[in-house]
Write a structure and sequence with these properties.
This protein is α+β, with helices and mostly antiparallel strands. The chain is built from twelve helices and 18 strands. It starts with 13 loop residues before the first helix and ends with a strand.
């Protein structure tokens, strides 16, 4: 039976999803009216690009390999009706490439745009947990340090991965459990100490505040810990019933934590990541790497290039893990051709790089290791691979 005394719960981003659905419906109905709704559809920008979103980005992507994109590309008369309908709900469409166009808010300075930016960043945060890429830059930890209520928005497994990642960043070796059938242990963590390696068993409960942790759950973790001669850590986004903390305090190897503790751990991890990032970007640390790369003639696994754009982009990999990396752009010079078409190579002169450094941004990339292609990095909407030392062709007319 529905409790009529309580107002129905509303998803905090429901109005954003409603606008996205309205844009989808407008475009689909428009295309069907003109009989061009085929080989077409919509994508989520964060999932499509799998790259860190910026401010003022598209709220939705339209793709078409058929007539719909041709009508939009050539601004044919049918396209005017679509533009007018989108403007009525505060949106406009802008092409990204031959098959993709983005829906953007007309008012880029509005509070609504800020909400969409935050939603995109939240989706990217979830992507970082999935990719286990948090320790590279600390953006993930900083997000939860500033938005602790979002702990409860995570699916249970992603919540466990977040806890695992936080402790990995603090020097622990961790292993997330299999999920169902894990016998009350969600994460196993090992820490090397002067007396040997210690094991901690973690139980994680991503509960709402109205669903407190009872004594039985904590007692079960204690029993598992005693059987394995390990420490126990219970982490929840909820709270503990009165008396549970007092009961747990009798065992010094059992620790109870909540969102406040998790927020504090994220703050510490974010600060450590920022410190590591500053060290990685220090000129004193960066110049030796450039000299090392230059000594090889540029054929080095830390020098990468993206060639899919009209103009190649060269980067140096400053820091990486198995799943993520920090990249920084370096300048290039033309060795043949003219401004429209030619070939370029990276500049590996320390002085030039130092001059260029002040105006460049470091960005995060997803790292993948392929059996055939080797290591690649996807970031800033480009796919980077190790440079082979040969000049790279560019063609602005292509």
């Amino acid at each position: 039976m529905t409790d009529k005394s309580k107002p129905p719960s509303v998803e905090p981003d429901a109005h954003l999803h409603a606008l996205i659905e309205k844009a989808e419906a407008i475009t689909q109905n428009w295309a069907k009216r003109h009989d061009i709704w085929y080989d077409a559809g919509h994508h989520d920008p964060v999932k499509h690009y799998d790259s860190e979103p910026g401010k003022g980005g598209p709220i939705l992507l339209f793709w078409s390999e058929g007539a719909a994109m041709r009508v939009i590309s050539y601004d044919e008369p049918e396209a005017m009706a679509l533009r007018d309908e989108l403007e009525n709900i505060g949106l406009y469409m802008e092409q990204d490439d031959n098959v993709t166009a983005g829906y953007y808010l007309i008012d880029q300075d509005s509070a609504l745009q800020n909400e969409f930016d935050r939603l995109a960043q939240w989706k990217w945060t979830c992507r970082l947990i999935e990719a286990d890429a948090a320790e590279v830059s600390g953006d993930l930890y900083a997000w939860f340090a500033e938005h602790p209520d979002d702990f409860r928005r995570l699916p249970p497994l992603e919540f466990e991965k977040l806890i695992s990642s936080v402790f990995t960043a603090r020097g622990w070796r961790t292993e997330v459990g299999p999920g169902s059938g894990d016998k009350g242990v969600d994460v196993r963590m090992w820490l090397e100490t002067p007396l040997g390696e210690t094991l901690t068993l973690v139980q994680a409960k991503r509960y709402a505040p109205g669903n407190p942790i009872k004594l039985e759950a904590v007692a079960a973790l204690e029993a598992h810990s005693q059987r394995e001669e390990a420490d126990g850590l219970f982490v929840t986004t909820s709270r503990y019933l009165p008396g549970v903390r007092k009961w747990a305090s009798r065992n010094k190897r059992l620790v109870l934590a909540d969102s406040t503790n998790l927020q504090s751990w994220c703050q510490a991890a974010a600060q450590q990541a920022r410190t590591d990032r500053i060290r990685a970007l220090a000129i004193e640390a960066w110049q030796p790497l450039i000299r090392e790369i230059a000594a090889t003639g540029g054929v080095h696994n830390r020098l990468v290039v993206a060639t899919v754009q009209a103009y190649p982009a060269f980067c140096v990999v400053l820091k990486e893990t198995a799943t993520a990396a920090l990249l920084i752009n370096i300048p290039s010079r033309r060795v043949s051709g003219d401004f429209q078409r030619g070939q370029v190579v990276p500049i590996l002169d320390g002085t030039t790089v130092k001059d260029f450094f002040s105006g460049v941004e470091v960005f995060r990339a997803i790292r993948s290791d392929h059996a055939q292609r080797g290591v690649t990095y996807w970031g800033d909407r480009r796919l980077y691979s190790v440079w082979n030392g040969q000049p790279v062709t560019f063609d602005h007319w292509d």
